User: Fold DNJC3 protein from Chauna torquata.
Amino acid sequence: LKSNPSNNEEKEAQTLLTRSDELQRLHSQALSAYQQEDYEAAISLLDEILAVCVWDAELRELRAECYIKEGEPSKAISDLKAAAKLKNDNTEAFYKISRIYYQLGDHELSLSEVRECLKLDQDHKQCFSLYKQVKKLNKQIESAEEFIREGRYEDAINKYDSVMKTEPEVPIYTTRAKERICHCLSKNQQATEAIKVCTEVLQLEPTNVNALKDRAEAYLLEDLYEE
Assistant:
């Protein structure tokens, strides 16, 4: 504006300055809402800012934090993935994405993302600690599934018992392990134990199709046709 003043440019410049002031005000309100733990309001304000400031990595990271607090992890992943691309060496974003996938029970994607973090910084303590945990769990699950494919059901059951010991804090891994143990017991014609474990799974997930099918097979072995 100073280098080349003209009516049109002056109008445009004034409009942009006004918009800039407005966005700064919204930013202050968003931070205030976040600090007051009103995450829904913070998301709404950040939506408005990010519609204009599309490439702002820090705003995306802040909105991701709000999504996590609001229990919307998939939306958080979307923002964090953008932030990982927008900011160089963003190990924190990769770490958070890996953690979210891990909490959701997607150990394979978690492992992939934490490796990206370690590519940027092999000495990153949080990423290395998470990497060791996910790698161990991933290996146990892969091994158990291999046993199932080979029909070695007792070995698979033992391996899934190890999975539950490796990760007792995230419920989805216990549920998935029990679902697969229920399958192994049913296939191994251990009907009574299969019914017991399948029922435990169905108490947690009443619409779990795999557990319903495996319990049905176990009932057939016991001649419990109505059940």
Remarks:
- The chain is about 80% helix and 0% strand.
